[in-house]
Amino acid sequence: MSDFAPANPEFARQVRDMFARQPFMVFIGAELSAVEPGRAEIRLPYRSDLTQHNGYFHGGIIGTLADNAGGSAAYSLLPADKGALTVEFKVNIIAPGQGQWLVARGEVVRSGRTLVVSRSNVFAVKDGNEKHCATCLMTLAVVTMPAAA
Amino acid sequence: MSDFAPANPEFARQVRDMFARQPFMVFIGAELSAVEPGRAEIRLPYRSDLTQHNGYFHGGIIGTLADNAGGSAAYSLLPADKGALTVEFKVNIIAPGQGQWLVARGEVVRSGRTLVVSRSNVFAVKDGNEKHCATCLMTLAVVTMPAAA
Amino acid sequence: MSDFAPANPEFARQVRDMFARQPFMVFIGAELSAVEPGRAEIRLPYRSDLTQHNGYFHGGIIGTLADNAGGSAAYSLLPADKGALTVEFKVNIIAPGQGQWLVARGEVVRSGRTLVVSRSNVFAVKDGNEKHCATCLMTLAVVTMPAAA
Amino acid sequence: MSDFAPANPEFARQVRDMFARQPFMVFIGAELSAVEPGRAEIRLPYRSDLTQHNGYFHGGIIGTLADNAGGSAAYSLLPADKGALTVEFKVNIIAPGQGQWLVARGEVVRSGRTLVVSRSNVFAVKDGNEKHCATCLMTLAVVTMPAAA
Known about the structure:
With 149 residues, chain A is of the alpha+beta class. Chain A has helices at 11-20, 23-28, 59-75; strands at 31-36, 39-45, 82-93, 101-111, 115-126, 129-144.
């Protein structure tokens, strides 16, 4: 789970470009805060628009970040003409998403030719302290991207 | 999976009230379109803000609806002083979310004293035709709600 | 989830042959009791060897049947030179496996060119009454089988 | 995920006793090879009875070990009068189970009052080399054990 070699030396730009082209991630205010080969981190500042009935980050937001962090980690290892589509993701919510930030960290477990398995963890950051609020295990399919995409 | 008895005769209002108190669901424009004992349906009109890089509904949105439809179905069976928190959810994305609407339908598989298992399916509606785009299996915990909630 | 066309007219024999070639299924005494296009049923009589600490069917056995029923359902739709490998499966245990038999019924949710999504349900049969004890959602990869296999 | 305090100082004996009382684990020849607070390891030697069509360990066996390793890890933290029942488990198979042994290592991610989240990894050991063949994320319910159990 530690030493992966990216197929594209421009892997970080590749992941950042893809992230920036997702209107929903821009809409909620998420930013890709770190990319390494086989790893990615997403940060999201608190907004009341993103909450559930109790004022904490909504579970759908937590799932969105978990999925995207694992997917971005997978994408960091792929050649320039490939993409990673989520086949399925499974998220355990283990604590409320309470804080000024959410941070999601994804990492590749296994990178295959046609399928990638990633996992990710989401933390709520309150007054500088990270609390583990969700853990995710997911599968992605490697697909050929349209030339114009 | 068919005939559940709601503990609260006002179950439909109970679910609608909870849904309305989730700012994130209002933010994305989702509406609770149907509630029956052990079942719930959510509809979401297309907006470009909710898309991924290819202009289709974002996977995080699909997961959010899947989770919420299954959770609303679970909540429809609970007494007035209880709530249902997502323990975990697992979503398979089986087709792109391409269309003018998403519709998510959740139903309870088993309603226990402390845990509820629900499943849900999400469909993309394009020109009046529903296409199955995701299926979800999830677990919820029954919790006592704060009196003021 | 209802009308699938098998690629191989000998689909039932195809699935039965594959089932019979799995020593572990023979070892536990499981039998493939029905095959239709996109559906399969497995039955397993009770033996104390297959139990957990309380004398009920072991969770590992329930998971094995759930996986195999969904996989057999997927395999029923594939051409003769293809096979279906489990990518991942997710099982919710909703009641103890208590009875004289377990019956697992799998069905295909979506059959794609490279991936198949199946679901399955496991029932414990006690004195002729079926009790729902597990539900499963899973992903399989379509692979080309070795000619000699 | 590292420093858990067991509620029972006899936690290792507690886990070993429970493991030994599961006939199915004895039947397949599995042994509990290590227990620490919040962690457990299970080993299983190869037998042709435990294989699938290609002679490798059957996916149902891999799932059984993954489930049991995560469950044993959870149980190691519980007081003497409590038990841990699997609510659900999700397993990704990432490589064939090919080797002379399987080793499954489970660890607790979060230990709550009523629910525990564990994860586990299964490795196939061939000629002394471990190959990662599955990863699992699961939820358990804490239950009060019958006095006589």
